[in-house]
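[audit] Reproducing an earlier prediction to check determinism. Same input, same settings, fresh worker. If the tokens differ from the archived copy the diff job will pick it up downstream; this log only records the rerun itself.
[audit] input (474 residues):
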Amino acid sequence: MADTDTRLLMLIDDEPAQSRLITALASREGWRTIVARDAETAIAQLGTRQGMALSAIILDQWVPGDDACELIAELKSRRPALPILMLTSSTSPLLAVEAMRAGATDYLVKPVAPDRLMQALRAATTREAPRDELAPLTEKLIANADFESMIGAAPKFRKALAVAAKAARGHAPVLIEGESGTGKEMLIRAMHAASPRAKMPLRIVNIGGFPANSIESVLFGHEKGAFAGAFDRQIGALQHCDGATLAIDEIDRLPVSVQERLLESLRKNGVRPIGARHSFRVDVRVLAASNMPLRELVDAGLFLPELHEALAPVTVELPPLRERTGDISPLSRFFLARIGEQPGLRELGITDGALSLLAAYDWPGNVRQLQAVLFRAAVFCDGDALTSEDFPQLLDILGTDQSTGLSTSRHEDAGVMLYTADGNLRPLEEIEADVIRLAIGLYRGRMTEVARRLGIGRSTLYRKLSELGIDNAA
């Protein structure tokens, strides 16, 4: 890889506005960009002095059209080690499979957020494992938006689901906190499906997906002529969701000036578009999601304490995947089953060695990153089951010794722990409780199946739940 200060990117794109945007974004992190307007120019560039210094290629599928995969294969045959990212407006899993098999390193769906684009470039040119690039595809793998689809037996995770399930039945705002990729949007959809407003629309507004100067208009709307460029009247998300549910994702990125307006709307149950003389009364349930604890932003003076209080009569805290690595095995099997249903793919198993490798990784991108990594591995797998060799980037990061067993710092999270920290056996009651929790997560709360797999009757299972203090409300 070239030095960070001299990284050279080739962009194959014939759209000037998009070329300027990507060039500007890449320059922020030390990339210099050369633009090829067509496939012939791109191939010719590879043989030049500049072409030999390339660190990555971004290809807009629109340029070669149906021949995009052929162009990727041609570029890859000439420069096998060069990362190639394909940019497309299609969300077809089949196209993703074909592009990646042709040699694409990543598959980015337009419009691509700036941070996601830069993360993709960083992952392609370092040893970092892929994170969010395949999110638009992998998030489609879970068709059901309900609590049954939320897999996991870790105590913190089950507690979060229990709190969310109870809060879903009300009308008050709910704040969901958790790192990026922990499943906040999926939980929002599950809560909406279980709420009294389930038959009404759910609208999700991601604050991070809009320029700071347009967020106020997105939420509150504006009148024609309210500001330069306001050529038409626009109804904001709050007014659109009258009688329904509005989810505000990444609310931790909400500008303070807009925080004040949102607080006023929540207090008065009304919304006043920019440039309007009067407010409109609305009945909106707000579900907010934050990638970091809002209390920390309040303490730092970056978030209004009154708004935090208004948004968080109930707070749900989703734990990161590194704190629930015992859930990696059931999550992986579930995702692989869904991946196998996609066009061009088939259902695969996964070996214990591969699961040990997955459990040893920190997963900074959490469950979403796990999905993307499994999808990528499934695309290239020739066997009937994924092995540790199907995750070369993780092997590179963690070392080959991780393929035969869990890291010593993580083995206690990857299943049922038999020993205490001082080497003595744990009490049988605690081990039994862990086995039952693991089974509940593995079989997604289907208690008849849990009882059958454990070899006990349903009545016995429920008695043990009561005796051991296990909450299966979610």
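[audit] rerun output stored. Observation attached for the diff report: The chain has 21 helices and 16 strands.
[audit] end
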